[in-house]
Description:
Blueprint: E1 2-8, H1 12-26, E2 31-35, E3 38-44, H2 48-51, H3 69-77, H4 79-90, E4 91-102, E5 105-117, H5 121-133, E6 139-142, E7 145-148, H6 151-160
Antiparallel strand pairs: 1-3, 2-3, 4-5, 5-7, 6-7
Helix pairs in contact: 3-4, 4-5
Amino acid sequence: MALRIYCTTAYPQIIDEVAAAHTQVMGTKVHFRTLIGCTAVCSTTVHWKCALPQHGPGMKHTRKIELADWQRDLVERNPQGLIRGLIHSDGCRATNNVKRMLPGGPRWYSYPRYFFSNTSTDIQGIFTDALDLLGIAWKQNRWNSISVARREAVAALDEFVGPKA
């Protein structure tokens, strides 16, 4: 079984981290395929099915996605790694600009926040459970999106997520 993770070429550090993870987890040789705007990081082993029991036919949001007991144990020991990976794959850190109408006229202010978007409610739950383990406040801002906007919560994520690079 081949595992291919497609990464935007704009973030070479993430490509390197994905390649290192392939090697660290399975000890397999990593191959790269450069396409327009992205790089596929690939490795082949029959053991990927053991490491990724969530894999299956169909779209993720139409089937049950849950962590195996051993995966849950890993997340409980290091929720930061899962959160960082999920934000780097399906999230972002953005600046929110807000306009408030005050008696003296409009006032603009900005603040950073993180978003994580995924159609699968199971994957959203895995993400928010990991945030809860660290006591990081979050809100569901849309049916398919989680927002982390409180100052202390953003600061906590900034410590280990960091910018995409």
